[in-house]
Structures
1.
Amino acid sequence: MSKSSKVSLSRRDFLRSTGTAAVLAAVPGVAMVAAQDSPDEIPRVLEEVTFLSGSPFPPPTPRDQNTYWQEIESRLGVRINFQLVPRSDYDALLGTTLASGDLPDALGGGPGDPLIRQALLDGAFVWLDDFGFPGDYRGLDGFAEVSEAGWRNSAFNGRVNGVPTGSHDFDDGSFIRTDWLEATGMEKPTTLEELTALMQAFAENDPDGNGNNDTFAYSIASASSRHDDGGGWRAFTDAFGIPNNWELQDDGTLLHKDVHETTRAATEHMRSLVSLGIFNPDFLSLNSNQANEEFASGISGGLVHNLASGYDLWGARVRELIDGADVTPIDPVTTEGFERANWLRPEFNTVTQIRFDYADDEDRLWDLLRIIHFWFDPATKDFVNFGFEGEHHIVTESGALEQTEKGSQDIAWIRAWNPRHVNKQVDAPYVGPETFEQITEDTARLKQWGLPDPTWGLFPELGFEDPSATLSDFANNTIGRMVVGEQSMDEWDTYVEEWYNRGGRLLTDTMTALYQQFKG
């Protein structure tokens, strides 16, 4: 049998002709072909594998004390080394790993990440369309749980570069504390002006009733998190209808969100809110998870997060801490002169990339795919997410499965280290039937304002000249300074000009050409 954990190679060693030599005729044409064969026919040739991914949780209990980890290895017949690092450290480690060539068998990251794009161009990973994907799964039919849109939108300009982690087309909510809302005597806000008044009441009118002026209006994080779960900004900026990354113009060109007039207006509004002193004054130093923890501590009036976590993760923590506390999502509010909008999702979260040398040995490749498939197979879903009953989870009166403390420690992020089971409508396994029904209802209502990204599945092939990361940092830093009053809004036009001069023109022209080639 083959013992495979890591292969140490130089960047030159993994340059391969599959890197960029062939591109499918069109992104919408990623073919779905009929599945065949049985997973039982896939040869078992691997003894050991290593998986690398970022994790939002602490490391799991070590293998020798972890019956959950041991059971996964027993079922698969392979030793698995999970290299799970904090998400805040992942990009740095990923860059170091890719530069060194000391690659694990599989790692997490889609072509939206410039580091992954460069590695794909260098031939660091397997192109799965060379092996019949998507569709020819040799009996590994859990991969078919990923939607056609998920496969198409995760492709690298038409090429299937790994196994996407499937998701659905919408799941975000701007949550507020309903008990605080009741304490203010106000109604759910429908306009930006009403939302501002409610936020002032949350920050200034002692909504928790403890007699102290110790609450924040809303949990928000740094400008780099302004569009993310936990970032909080979108509760206020959705009113301006900021494009989902890019907007297609009437002349067929694309315009990026960071230089769009809606972002200017949204930045100006955030500046006015910050000046009221209603947020944590240190918000620019917080990441999304720290903002979530702030909300969970009970001192702020809301957070932005996926609907499942808003209700039954962060919302549940507030309910456990405070009697009578509860949360609910509000609809995007309106403001004069703009059309409110939130964002649809591309039906995938990330991609599991497979080290390039697996392309040279199909037995090893398909055995690795068999192992990865464990996190897609509907038959393993309950065990992967909840482990052994009694030890890792209990069954509540409502029929929901609820992790025990040991379950949380043992399972940690192994349950979703990068691949994960597709959860229809609700992007989390832990919600109960009642919450599932509520989230399904909320999703149908909220996504009516959803905008797609016209460039899903399109990624610039600019290699080391790709300015995406630099431009993102520049925009986040500038907008962050503007909202806290360290830089004048009068400098917006200068910022836009500099954004284009720093590589924005190259990026815009490249993405426009890709759009016209594949979708125009």
2.
Amino acid sequence: MRRNCPMNFAKLGQVFAPSHWVKSMLYKAQKRLEKVFSPWGKLLQQLSFRQRILLTFLPIVVVGSVLQVLIAGDQIQSMSMEFFQTQVEAEALKIAASLPEPMEHYLEGKGGQDIQNALSSLQFDAAWHYLLVDSNRRIIAFTLGDGYESQQVAEQTPDLAQAARGRTGVDIRPFAGGEDYLFVATPIYYEQHLIGYFVLSRSLTPLYQSIHQQWIQLVLASLPVLLLIFIASLWISSTILRPIVALQKSALKMAQGELGVKMPVEREDELGDLSKAFNHMSEQLDKILTAQRSFVNNAAHELRNPLMTMRLRLDAIANQTLDEGQKAQYIADLQQEVSHMAELVTSLLTLARIDEGRHVTNGAVEETSTVLSDIGRNWRIRAQQAGLSYEAEIEELLPAVTISDNDLRLVLNNLLGNAIKYTQQGKVGLKAYLEGDNVVVQVWDTGVGFNPTEAERLFERFYRDESVRHDYEGNGLGLAIVKAVLEQYGATITAYSEGEQRGAWFTVHLPVV
């Protein structure tokens, strides 16, 4: 006994949810595809790039060409068969049109001389045969050797069956030694009464031979095309690989130390873009290595000078030829040189951390105005100690900026320290205001300034403008550290001066959080 139970559609939806069975089917299909194509993938990995191009391109072209040959051959074969059939049908209709009166005379008992005269006037070769029967398929005439000699009534063949329904019948079947023949049967009418059938047949062997020749000609005609396609494939692969091979040779030259090597840019496609990118990489690598060599040389020079000074002082102290005043002075000099070296090493380590990406850049300054004012108060005291005026112009309630408190202090300490160091008399100042999505911080002074053409070089490592700053101590790393730190946060810094002894402006743009 069946019960009508309410269907739980929610549970049914959970069972047959697409996310359940679709994922399962996709996973199984993926595993099967991986199993099928994994050997091919491993094989492709072992082939050269040229072989991969040919293996990918040629099978597609060859299969396409073979399909075109097959389609064209099939169309030619169909058209040839259709023309052959039309030719036989036309001939059968023409002959049948001359037979109604002779057949009527024969059926009335007047003899078959008229039929014999009508058929004897026809010209047939050995490939043509005919059969003439009355409406009951009783044989009246036929071609000698067709096998009808011992028959009184013709078999009910498909072509005669179609002719009996009042239309031209067509059939293909083995005949006369096993060859395929095309049979065309046409009904014969006399005064709108069916009195018989005329069957005309022709061997298909000549047609088959002609079609076979056409297939051979079509295949032979396609071979030069395939050869041209193969040659074109080789040319295309060589064209694609030529810049890649040149790139490989250039890369090997670079590995051997020829950093100035360049790739010729002779094309505007993706390979041309690759050559341009390689040349750009070569230039940048050359600049980086040149900068590193310069950095090492400058660092060695900066370290060698204090070390030489320390060695001379230590030798003098060790010889015990100094009085107490000279000894105290030499010890003070040694302490100063140690401080200088410690500052240099700290700067080098800071740059190394930034270059290696180990400089921590998380955090933000929330109370920007307060932090800037706090930094300014410390430097106001130092400026006054140096006999300088200090001016501050900081907007209140500036928004938070994307830089940590320590890094902001590092940047401003370097900039304000330089401003005081390079200003003998006059003023230094700190200005901060909001401009769009950035907080702009400016440090300015009325000191020695610099040549405007040297503005960009001020941020290079170990660079010092000796024309105006040769009398001032320093290692040339402070501004390089400032720029490197700011770039970690997407901030920028620019330098401006109207010329020597006309002061300097350093402008920092800090992105707002």
